[in-house]
Amino acid sequence: MKNILFITADQWRADCLSSMDHPCIKTPNLDKLAEDGVLFKNHYAQAAPCGPARASLYTGMYLQNHRIVQNGTPLDARHTNIALEARKAGYDPLLFGYTDMSPDPRTRAPGDPDLRRYEGVLPGMTPAVLLNSEAIPWLIYLKGKGYETPLGPWEVHQPVKNFADAKNRGPSFAPSRYKAEDSITAFLTDEVLKYLSIKQDKSWFIHLSYLRPHPPFVAPEPYHDMYNLQDIPPTVKAQTAEIEGQQHPWLSHYINNQTQQLWYGHDATTNVTLDGAEVDQIRATYYGLVSEVDHQIGRLIHFLKENNQYDNTLIVFTTDHGEQLGDHWLFGKSGYFDQSFHIPLIIRDPDSDAKAGQKIEDFTESIDVFPTILDWIGLETPSQCDGWSLLSFCKGQKPNVIKKEVHWGYDFRDTEGRNVQKNLGLRIDQCTLNVIRDKKFKYVHFTALPPLLFDLEKDPDELVNCADDPAYITVVTKYAQMLLSWRMQHDDRILSNTWIGPKGPLEKKDPKPSHTENKNNSMLKKNIVEEY
Length: 532
Description:
The protein is an alpha/beta fold. It is built from 15 helices and 14 strands.
């Protein structure tokens, strides 16, 4: 049996693991998983928010190719994904949680209710427990436990009223009205454990998609006060929001037009006015939600070990994107700062004989997860993929190609209110940026706004834009050219390397790192020739 446990959290920053040397956060179960497997320290998402980020994760494609630019953008039906490919090896990928994939309207009737909501299921996934924003299965569970049934999923996250010391600690301090054993995180974990307790006769593929530590920032006891404010690391930001906004027109606009609602009844436009103590408590509550997810993952791992499944299960833990947490006067996920795109990745390969506990310093990207899982089960990586397998790292080997930089894109168009376009003087298709980041520099190119350059060796906090500094003109030119070359190299290639000739369709592929050298792909013969 070769099982796959593919876990995603939502809005989890890379630094929020104690194995990443965080000064106070506690994630003992994920730390132990990293000790048994591999921790990728410089792993980056390719897009934000959830829909675009998950599209890259599930399809292995950069934003420029899958073109899901915001929540609600449909997933083109011509693209394959991790679930569809896994089915070729006999798996029935089960979803516990959500995927935020909107269906291609060209494949549906105009009246299809799935075209009225953006939180669709990734094609190929079988919804075992679907927890979209309505959270119906969880609300039904809470009602059965005797809780007062709320009008909607945000109402259920109202905190305990008149909780002691809440006025002094800020609105995110009071605990939730539901117990930790009944939280949405615990509920989803329980559902997976119920399934695994009876489903052990053949290989399984489970995609467990947690909401937390995504807002609303309210945590059940004891997680709500697990962290003391004096231990919370300070935010990284300029002295004032006005000074921070001077870095770039887009940043100034977004600081003053924030959209991330932080708790029930909160007005997102006031995020920039939160004082230091309130921000510290928000961060403390966020850390508590992180530790709650870590605890529930520990329950899953314990079950696998107790039932002799741990050593035949590939475990992948990652997230869709990060969270600003007040850094640069921002909350949520957006733009170009590392806090929104630097994310965790832990892979535990039970087949590996290599020394466990490796911490990989090389750059990796979300688009690499899909090829890695396929590589582990002996499937070929589809031509559409921009990423490549990381399994060689898990085997203790260096791949023949190492990424020297990472890339992501961010699309900030407003298809409803047009506020961004109006305020920044842009057309809708000009509301885009691309990032190239290596160990020394980060270059940010806007379609129709000035670029940014950060000297990361001198300014790791990204507070000083060097793009207009004459001393950096050659660096700006070099990285702009590198970014252009990257875009050209990674244009959609699904059919561009295929040729129709006397032998039928012929396809030429660039070799990509793989520990298996596709040795198991003979069982998946296709009607194409891979070399010509």
